[in-house]
């Protein structure tokens, strides 16, 4: 099937055409993403109302471009998938309503996709990963371990109890005046810094549960920055490097524990760790995960960064996987600002077309 995917849940306006063949392999025919960096730059974070307006302004053009780059006409589509949540509700409504209108006009099925399911299934598009596997999702809005047993079958094993990891990078960048988005800027500064100059805390790390907490770490970084003010360039670099060392150790330790649990609970399965979300772009974290995977005998899958961050192809693919199992959604399906992956109703059977 040829399916259009629409993503508008945060600050990316994105559309993609994906072809899923009978053998279950996916081919990305187009993948157009417009990031709203300029709209939100002055505010140091995403402003929901501005995001929704920008989606309204751009989505039609992005869809037209995606269809055009795929070398097809709208009428060639077999289905339409759109993110129905979780996310900023104004933006979700723009994308979902557009998806509904297209599906109705084309008389083709609509799949209302959980954005997190898009992240969770991307590795099957890029790397043909087989179920089950463990996903570590680390983005601007989410940080969690999810056991992916199958399409629509997810178990949340742990996650952040306060800030998301990408959010922590963004906040540290802001207080070091490194700009937005913060992740790449902090990583750049950290390269020139001394990761041992400051010993920042590793919150929760002594506890056995698979949870994260980053807000205390962020406060420790702020207090250190205030104590040193005014900061020179070396101070900024050293703080960035020490912060990155701290979160790298946290993520690596938790991932080791999660893979040990995977081995214990699924002794028959080959252990696999799939990383998703924008923070997957971080070289320090990715390198540490590679070490953990090697130690625990697990396969590590890190899809290309453009498919780890928010995009339309992941939505199209999740839609195609659901549709292949007979799931579709009614045109009155609701947008959901909050929608955990293990919420009731994720199972494909609940959506039989
Ligand atoms: P959601 O959480 O809804 O998936 P998002 O747009 O916030 O959406 P992504 O687009 O997946 O998340 O990723 C953006 C986040 O990734 C930002 O917080 C950004 O700072 C972080 N990030 C990007 N590159 C890096 C990097 N090299 N190192 C650390 N963090 C990074
Ligand atoms: Mg984003
Ligand atoms: Fe996302």
TrEMBL record:
Keywords: Acyltransferase, Cytoplasm, Iron, Metal-binding, Transferase, tRNA processing. It is an enzyme of class 2 (transferase). Residues 28-317 form the Gcp-like domain. Its cofactor is Fe(2+). PROSITE patterns: GLYCOPROTEASE. It comes from the Bacteria. Fe cation binds at residues 115, 119, 310. This is tRNA N6-adenosine threonylcarbamoyltransferase.
């Amino acid at each position: 099937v040829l399916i259009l995917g629409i993503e508008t849940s945060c600050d990316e306006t994105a559309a993609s055409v994906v072809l899923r063949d009978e053998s279950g392999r996916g081919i990305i025919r187009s993948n157009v993403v417009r990031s709203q960096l300029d709209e939100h730059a002055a505010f140091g974070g995403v402003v929901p109302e501005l995001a929704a307006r920008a989606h309204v302004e751009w989505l039609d053009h992005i869809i037209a471009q995606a269809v055009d780059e795929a070398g097809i006409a709208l009428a060639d589509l077999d289905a339409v998938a759109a993110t129905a949540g979780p996310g900023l509700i104004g933006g979700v409504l723009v994308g979902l309503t557009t998806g509904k209108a297209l599906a109705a006009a084309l008389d083709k099925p609509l799949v209302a996709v959980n954005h997190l399911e898009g992240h969770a299934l991307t590795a099957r598009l890029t790397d043909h990963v087989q179920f089950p596997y463990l996903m570590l999702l680390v983005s601007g809005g989410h940080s969690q371990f999810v056991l992916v047993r199958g399409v629509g079958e997810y178990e949340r094993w742990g996650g952040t109890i306060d800030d998301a990891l990408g959010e922590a990078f963004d906040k540290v960048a802001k207080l070091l005046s490194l700009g937005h988005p913060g992740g790449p800027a902090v990583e750049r500064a950290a390269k020139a810094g001394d990761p041992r100059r400051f010993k920042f805390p590793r919150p929760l790390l002594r506890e056995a549960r698979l949870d994260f907490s980053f807000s205390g770490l962020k406060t420790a970084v702020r207090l250190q920055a205030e104590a040193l003010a005014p900061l020179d360039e070396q101070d900024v670099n050293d703080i960035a490097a020490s912060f990155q060392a701290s979160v790298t150790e946290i993520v690596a330790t938790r991932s080791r524990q999660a893979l040990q649990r995977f081995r214990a609970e699924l002794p028959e399965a080959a252990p696999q760790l799939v990383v998703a979300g924008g923070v997957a772009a971080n070289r320090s974290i990715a390198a540490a995960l590679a070490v953990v995977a090697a130690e625990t005998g697990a396969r590590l899958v890190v899809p290309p960064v453009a498919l780890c961050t928010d995009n339309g192809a992941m939505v199209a693919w999740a839609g195609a996987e659901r549709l292949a199992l007979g799931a579709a959604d009614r045109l009155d399906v609701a947008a959901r600002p909050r929608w955990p992956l293990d919420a009731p109703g994720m199972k494909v059977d609940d959506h039989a077309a």
